[in-house]
Amino acid sequence: MLYCPKAKGPVIYRQRVLPFGAKASVTSFIRCAYALWYPGVRGLKLSWSTYFDDYVVTSTPAASKHTELVVNLFFSILGWKVATDKQVSFDACCVAFGVKLDLSRAAQGLVHIDNAEKRRRELQADIQRVLDTGKLSCSECLRLRGRAQFASGQLFGRRARRALGKLTPQELEKGGRISRTMRDGLTFLHTLLGRERPREVSRKFDETVHVYVDASFKPDDGYCGLGGMVLNSKGEIEAWFGERVPGGLVQGLLTEGGEDRKTVIFELEALAIVAAVKKFTRWLEHRNIVIFTDNEGVHGAFVRCKTENGAGQRLIEATCEAEELLGGM
After folding, report:
1. How far apart are CA 229 and CA 218, in angstroms?
2. Where are the beta strands (DSSP E) in the chain?
3. What is the pTM of this model?
4. What mean pLDDT comes out for the span 118-131?
5. What is the C-alpha to C-alpha distance for residues 326 and 106, in angstroms, rounded to an integer?
6. Closest residue by Cα to residue 191 from 149, 163, 172
7. What digits encode the pLDDT tens for the residues 205-220?
């Protein structure tokens, strides 16, 4: 019952959905789930996690049967019904809340995180259906965006975030038709999901390397150059490069888009980052990487993964693609 300004009095409304906004049911549910998790850790010494209503339990192979019995009795004694059809046997791989955890190479310090096969196929099919029809309602757009955003969390790389930025109701045209920008974003997300390239978590991520890059633009003497070096966590130089940029490339950047520009230092500084990431692959793979550039414009553009500069945007895309192949950044 709510006060109606038109009727100047209370009016009864009938809701068609659960009043999550009017009653903190989700918060209460999470508190109950956590209340079950805590005694399992402290009292039963279980090594488990909780994510909403999914509990992931780890065990040694020898104790797996006993652990399974303890967990089932724990819920039974407390009077909680368990979805037995969702229970899976202990294995090196498991699926929880649509996320696949692969610990088969954990002994080598490598864990893979991916989307569950079923959810990935369903999301791909829904995206393809939108691409085929070319239409999408506002509510369907928000629902699809939420699902795509969750799925992108299991994929390494930053380009998915940029594609998600195009999947908004503001990109819908008259009659619910998807814009060209939204189509580009959906196409990329569909391709990204189809690559089946899971996110890697490696113990090598404990090591951080620094990459320093710089570029010069001196039209007076006709010399434009790129340079960079990579330092390990001890501050030792592991590799470096210095190259002259061909005059034809510089001239092409100066006249790109039919414009007669005076400088292309932005593009050259961005090109230095791409060159460093590709040239230093051997020293950057599966490591935390910090890249230093003295150009604030380039720094901001690479952080946002977006710029209005056409050549700059292509260089950002190339860097992001290289990041995905490296498995670190």
Report:
1. 22
2. 2-4, 9-11, 47-51, 54-58, 93-96, 99-102, 110-115, 199-202, 208-218, 223-231, 237-244, 288-292
3. 0.71
4. 93
5. 19
6. 163
7. 678 899 999 999 987 7
